[in-house]
Amino acid sequence: MARLVLKFGGTSVADIDRIRNVARHVKREVDAGHDVAVVVSAMSGKTNELVGWCREASAIHDAREYDTVVASGEQVTAGLLAIVLQKLGVNARSWMGWQIPLRTDGSHGAARIDAIDGTEIIRRFGEGQVAVIAGFQGLAPDNRIATLGRGGSDTSAVAVAAALQADRCDIYTDVDGVYTTDPRIEPKARRMDRISFEEMLEMASLGAKVLQVRSVELAMVHKVRTFVRSSFEDPDAPGMGDFDNPPGTLICDEDEIVEQQVVTGIAYAKDEAQISLRRVADRPGVAGAIFGPLADAGVNVDMIVQNISEDGSHTDMTFTVPASDLDKAASIIAAAKEDMGFDVVQSESGLTKVSVIGIGMRSHAGVAATAFKALAGRGINIRAITTSEIKISILIDGEFSELAVRTLHSVYGLDKARP
Amino acid sequence: MARLVLKFGGTSVADIDRIRNVARHVKREVDAGHDVAVVVSAMSGKTNELVGWCREASAIHDAREYDTVVASGEQVTAGLLAIVLQKLGVNARSWMGWQIPLRTDGSHGAARIDAIDGTEIIRRFGEGQVAVIAGFQGLAPDNRIATLGRGGSDTSAVAVAAALQADRCDIYTDVDGVYTTDPRIEPKARRMDRISFEEMLEMASLGAKVLQVRSVELAMVHKVRTFVRSSFEDPDAPGMGDFDNPPGTLICDEDEIVEQQVVTGIAYAKDEAQISLRRVADRPGVAGAIFGPLADAGVNVDMIVQNISEDGSHTDMTFTVPASDLDKAASIIAAAKEDMGFDVVQSESGLTKVSVIGIGMRSHAGVAATAFKALAGRGINIRAITTSEIKISILIDGEFSELAVRTLHSVYGLDKARP
């Protein structure tokens, strides 16, 4: 008997039929004797409808009112799922954020969770009751509804799992796990059984859209074992109720991963743009002078590479931004040219960042060299490189995206089934 | 400077454009210096959508979950109206039932209001803030959302007006006031300037669908001056902001109506059915034996007429039910025939009840006689009559409905403008 938090996203609860399917997943776990809390998103499309009305009402609007409007979507799903569960004979009740309460800070529209009182929900586990929790929402200090911002329901689920000291947080979604790379690009991509929090964090922030970065961070901090699985499979198919080894990918502490791979996965992010500043004055504070104004404007600067200039007395500075931010970044830099002191700006868009991720890299030399050599062998030019302890990111021309992903996926042996 | 509660129904807030129009009505009153609370319904169609989902989830469903789902409609409107008001420069915030709190009893799905804490809303009037209140909802003793049942937003508005000690509760709707009779039947029907609570109660319960009976009862008990007016007129048209004499109908204490009319209005209810029991044993308890089982089955029995039977030793019992309840009523009576002791059942549907209403009747003789004579003059047969202090109800064949309404409207001089 374990304690589980199950989370279902918008496409999994898009209509009453799908909500019935969700209820069967829940019932399966309840019948197995587990304590179950369910976290739900709004029915797919509903959040966009509500957000659209807020924008139509006023382009700039009070975040507290926005939260009141938008949080209604999860409220509806929670009530409906409770009704369907009851019809299946499962004792269930819905919980809004303010009822639990799930307390947040006062940053309406993008609130952070401060505390979750799980007392009453845990007490009702003792009575065999399932808690159906509206995701994405909480109660702010002003006694008003606050929403958690994008991906908020994943974050709700992980936070609830931490508060309830759940054995696992199962994220049911429209894919059946985390893959070694994007299967649409590399059909040989394989579903991982396990991946460490650190690796998943890199995968998520690099564009693997299975889980929001924020929920992975939270899972890592609170050591919430998080399991990615499909909500569209038959809830009663063989193995679905196998507690120890259900189909999907477990995101967990690296201690739980017995056989570490050197490289776990290949991630990529398209539509990057590169900006290069030549002959920047090589004096203290110059990086702050360049990146401060960009940060103030909300431009998300990613890879930063600094080199000595050709003349040896200056420095060259290259960095990437999302292509959608390029015009804004370029005009900020142009405006601050005097201040920053540089000669030439070069920029290019249509680039892709491919990344090799693996916790085993820490103890293995030559991982980066293997990547560079493999890409060179395919005639793919490398525009910039950054590395971290468990990741190598390489900026290339966008036209080589798929080829690079496939090449790297193959060179690290990810095509082959693990022993 | 007065304190006003304004209530807007579903068609008045059907989309963002209409919500903008509502906001202009609100702003007009705010600009005039009044304290303003607004009570809103769900956008038209939304409540039906939410109710439909609950039914699709399960034909029989937990009323607490139903309330959670359905109350979200008003939540959305309240947030959106607050946003639009802020855009117009009006200081406004939304209030859910649980935030005020507006406390109800535990009858989820059809809750009654127990208490409304107006302290914080009144304090904020002092800061010039408008309260935008989600109608139809409150907080039950179990700390969950309760809805007030059909017509709940009118009831919310009147109860809020009582709690805030408002000078007036303005019900903005899709008609511009209360008429002497249905203008679709009698184009000469005139809008009344004033009508007493008692008269309005009779008009409402007899099918004038301007206001829910329950909200009129509440207004009468708490002496809330309630004003029916149109939300579709230009908010800034001449006279709309006239505090003492805006266009519409004031429902108020009869003391406020200087010149009482003998007859105020003609109401009607179609689709009535009549059931007659002949030769009922004339002994104590027989009425209970007949109407008890009907009440238990939820059949709404209306006009009851009892006569001595032709043979003098028994009694005849005639009563009306809505035509939609006729089959149910007939089968209950058939099943209980032994118990009730009667000979013959006759039933007929397709009947109409027309009613003459007026507080002045109390002090004027001959009002009923005038009606009977007028109907006879048109060849309309009277099937049953019931009277109260301020009302005469007459059951006729449905085909004469319109003719009867017009005849009565004319015979009491309602066609003519009041002096």
Written overview of the protein:
The structure is a homodimer of 419-residue chains. With 419 residues, chain A is an alpha/beta fold. The first copy, chain A, folds into two domains: 3-254, Carbamate kinase, CATH 3.40.1160.10; 265-411, VC0802-like. Helices cover 33% and strands 26% of the residues of chain A. Chain A has 13 helices and 18 strands. Chain A has helices at residues 16-31, 46-57, 63-70, 72-87, 119-125, 152-163, 197-205, 213-222, 286-296, 326-335, 337-340, 367-377, 401-411; strands at residues 3-8, 35-40, 92-95, 102-104, 113-116, 130-134, 137-139, 145-147, 168-173, 194-196, 226-230, 249-252, 265-281, 304-308, 314-322, 344-357, 384-388, 391-397. In chain A, the strands form four sheets. An eight-stranded mixed sheet of chain A has the order 3-6-2-1-9-11-12-10, with helices on both faces. The first copy, chain A, has a six-stranded antiparallel sheet with strand order 14-15-13-16-18-17. In chain A, strand 4 and strand 5 form a beta hairpin. In chain A, helix 1 crosses helix 4. The longest helix of chain A is centred in the first third of the chain and has 16 residues, at 16-31. The radius of gyration of chain A is 24 Å and the shape is globular. Chain A starts with a strand and ends in an 8-residue tail after the last helix. The mean pLDDT of chain A is 91. Chain A binds chain B through residues 16, 19, 50, 53-54, 56-58, 61-62, 64-69, 72-73, 75-76, 78-80, 82-84, 86-87, 93-94, 96, 98-99, 143-145, and chain B through 16, 19, 50, 53-54, 56-58, 61-62, 64-69, 71-73, 75-76, 78-80, 82-84, 86-87, 93-94, 96, 98-99, 143-145. Chains A, B: Keywords: Amino-acid biosynthesis, ATP-binding, Kinase, Lysine biosynthesis, Nucleotide-binding, Transferase. Chains A, B: Residues 275-350, 356-419 form the ACT domain. Chains A, B: InterPro entries: AceGlu_kinase-like_sf, ACT-like_dom_sf, ACT_Aspartokinase, ACT_dom, AKii-LysC-BS, Asp/Glu/Uridylate_kinase, Asp_kin_monofn, Asp_kinase.
